[in-house]
Amino acid sequence: MLCISVNDLLCWKKKQLAKGGDIQTLALLLESIGGISNSDLNLLSINHKENLYLKKNLEHLELIWEDHLFNSSPMQYLCGITFWRDLKLEVTDKVLIPRPETELIVDIVFNIFRKKSEKLFFAELGTGSGAISIALALAYPFSEGVATDIDQDALAIATKNFINSSKQSNLQFYCGNWWSPFESFKGKLDLAISNPPYIPRDTYEKLPKEVKNYEPKIALLGGEDGLKHIREIIEKAPLFLKENGWLILENHFDQGEKVKQLLIKNKFTSIEIVKDLSGIGRFTIGRYK
Fold this sequence. Notes:
Elements: E1 2-5, H1 6-19, H2 23-34, H3 38-44, E2 51-54, H4 58-71, H5 75-79, E3 81-84, E4 87-90, H6 104-112, E5 121-125, H7 131-139, E6 144-149, H8 152-165, E7 171-175, E8 189-194, H9 201-205, H10 209-212, H11 228-240, E9 241-250, H12 256-265, E10 268-275, E11 281-288
Parallel strand pairs: 5-6, 5-8, 6-7, 8-9
Antiparallel strand pairs: 1-2, 3-4, 9-11, 10-11
Helix pairs in contact: 1-4, 2-4
């Protein structure tokens, strides 16, 4: 541990932010690598003469900050962690960094299944870091969940995140493409969720460097029109959902109406396009029959 005055750290923070970036990202660096949380620093900043202890020196933290600023490296990958809802998750470049807007998927589930004592059987297709499934497994402790990913490295991260987040055993992980690992679960699911790759090819080519150059292409690109994987998920969902089972999908900002039509075509009802906090139709949900 390295002893430093609060005043020195606050001056260092000001200097780093003058180079660019935002305060939330710098706070992630300080907490995950430096070992000092933003709330702790705010408490200590009342008295600038107080001392605090860092896990790494400021020179080391500055190198990481400059890598983020000048190479567009995502801070979550540089730190190896991200915070999502109330979870602290390990992330590497093998998984997509879970976005704040995706947190609303969990709230959509809460609106449908209001009793946390319910015994749901839910599935997540393309779990990545495991964020959505872990949040649901914790929120519905009497439920059972299954989650898939096509990438073994991603599954290893998701499994580790679940172990680190919970002492429960109500979530299992399977390797495979979309529905393929779930053959034994046909007609048994109360709920299926997916945040699949949905970026159209033309849009993918124009993504910011911090996304296109670092995050896994397989987790972003959804074919020419962005709907390749969404189509497959919707078309096969009726085989696996119970009667009145729900399907919740995240989609691109302009895909809601197209996803809605795909759900109608496959005999879903109670279809709704749910807006995110920016007013964008980010999610499309439906009930099977």
